[in-house]
Amino acid sequence: MIKKFFQVSAILSLTSAVLLAGCQNKEVKQVNSSSSPNQQKALEPVNLKYYFFGASKPGDQDVYDGLNKVLKEKINTTVEFIKVPVGDYTQKMSVMVNAREEFDLAFTSPSYLNYFEQSAKGSFVDLTELLPKYAPETYKQLKPSIWDAAKVNGKIYASINQQIFARQSGFNVNKAIADKYGFNPTSVKKMSDLIPLLDKVKAGEPAEKTDQLFNAQMKNQVFSYFFPSYEWENIGGVDVPGVAKSTDKNPKVFNEYDTPEFKDFIMTLSDFQKKGLIAKDALTRPTFDSAKYMASSIATLMPGIEETVKATYKAEQYVIPLGEPLLTSANAIATMTAVSTTSKHPERALMVIELLNTDKDLYNLLVWGIEGVDYKKIGNNRIESLPGAKYGPAYGWMFGNQFNSFISGTQPDDVWEQTKKLNESAKLSTLYGFSFNADNVKAESANSAAIVNEYKAAFNTGLYGADTEKKYNEFLAKLKTAGLDKVLAEKQKQVDAFIATKK
C-alpha cells in the first residue's frame, strides 16, 4: 500500500527611482487595515492591471468585484485582474514587456516570464528598498536567506509568494482505474514505467475515454519537473540550457538536453504517441477533458497534494514521488509577483501584494471564490467546494502567502505547518543563493531559448514520431550553432566564482 507522500517546488535602479520619485512615506501607513478613514482618503484613487495565468471561469468577475470592494476600502485601489491561458502566458507577456505596454503586476518565475532575464533587462522594478517600506509584513515573513534567492546582481526584483519551497517531482495516476488493472504504484521509478498500465487501460476501456490518457502538458518545460530527482538545478531559468548537479561540492554546468535522461524522456513520449496514449491532435485541440487523463507528471509534491490532484483530475489519485525534497534558489523563487517598470503606481502595486500576503479573507476570496456560492465552511479553516461553483479554485501558490489558505478534502489540518517544516528540513543545494547574470551572453541565451521553444511542444507530445532521433540531433546541432557553448562557459565561470566565495 502506497504511503501518503508529504515530501514534495544600474538601468533598472534608475528607472525605479524615477517612477517612485513622488511617493510619500505616509502611504506606508495605508497598508495597515486599521488605518483611519481620514488616512485612507489621503491616498488618491488608482486602477492597476494584474496579469497571471489560469482558465477563465463564469464567476471570475463576481470575485474580482468583491476583491475590488475590499481594495477600494483599504487602499483606495481597484485592480483589473487579467487571466492568460497558461500555455500562452510567457509569449504574451514577453510581447507586452518588449513593447513597453503599461501594466502594474505580473506573475513571474524562472519558468514563466523568465524572472532572471526580465530582471536583468529592466522589465521589473527594483524592490530591494521598496518591499520593506510598502510591504513590510510580507518582507518580514521570509528569512533573509530566502530573499537572497531572489537577488539578481544583488537586487530583488519581485516579491516571493510564500508556499512550498522544497521541490520533489513525481506522477499522479487515477486510482480507481489503476486498481481495476492491478497497478502497483511502487513499480514506477520513471515515466516509461507507466506504459504497462496505460497499455492495459487503452485496450480495456471504451475508445472515447482513452484518446488522451497521458497529460503531455505540451507547452510546459516538463523535462525540468524531474530535475530534483536527478539532483540537478537550473542555472538562470529553464528556457536557457545549462544546469548543474545541486549536491556536488564543485558543480559542473552541462547541457541538460545532451544527456541520456533527456533522450529517454523524448523517446518515451514518442512511444506514448505511437501507442495512442497522448492525444493525436495535442497541438491543435482547443480543450481537453481533465477527467480523461489516466496519468500526469507533477512538478511539485507537497503536503496535501492528493487533494489538489483529485480536484484537478476529478478522481482519487495515486501520488508517486521521485527522489527526495531539494531546496534550490530556483525553487525558492518558483512563484513570484513582479511590478512592471511601466507602472505609474509601483508603490500602490506593492500595497496590493502586502494585502494578498496579510489579509486572509482577501487571499481566500481570490483563491476560493465566494462563500455560499463557490464553497461552504465545514470547520474553522476547512471548506468544501459547492457543486455549482462558478469560480476556481485558483492556483493558491500564485498569489501572496499560501499559508493563509483554507484547507479542503483530505488535506490534513496542519498541512501548512507540515509544509513549513518541509521547507526547513529539505536538502540544501550547494548553489543556494546563486543567481546567474546573462549580460555577457544575452544574444546567445535568447537564441538558445528560442530553439528550445521551437522543439519543446513536439518533443513533449511525441509528435516527431519515427523522426524523433533525427530531430533530436538536429536540435542539439542548432543549440551549438546558437552559441550555447559560450552560454555554458559563462555559467560555469560564475558558478566557480560563487563556490570560491564559500570556501
Summarize this, please?
This protein is an alpha/beta fold and 503 residues long. The protein has three domains: 11-163 and 331-408, Periplasmic binding protein-like II (D-Maltodextrin-Binding Protein, domain 2, 3-Layer(aba) Sandwich), CATH 3.40.190.10; 170-329, D-Maltodextrin-Binding Protein, domain 2 (3-Layer(aba) Sandwich); 441-501, no CATH class. The protein contains 20 helices and 18 strands.
List its traits.
single chain, 503 residues, alpha/beta, D-Maltodextrin-Binding Protein, domain 2, five-stranded mixed beta sheet, four-stranded mixed beta sheet, 20 helices
Write the layout of secondary structure elements.
Elements: H1 11-19, H2 37-41, E1 46-53, H3 60-75, E2 77-84, H4 89-98, E3 105-108, H5 115-120, H6 130-134, H7 136-141, H8 144-148, E4 151-152, E5 155-156, E6 159-160, E7 170-174, H9 175-180, H10 195-204, E8 214-215, H11 227-230, E9 232-234, E10 243-245, H12 260-274, E11 295-298, H13 305-313, E12 317-321, E13 326-327, H14 329-332, E14 336-339, H15 346-358, H16 360-368, E15 375-377, E16 382-385, E17 407-408, H17 415-425, E18 427-428, H18 442-461, H19 468-481, H20 484-501
Parallel strand pairs: 1-2, 1-3, 8-11, 13-18, 16-17
Antiparallel strand pairs: 3-14, 4-5, 6-14, 7-11, 7-12, 9-10, 15-16
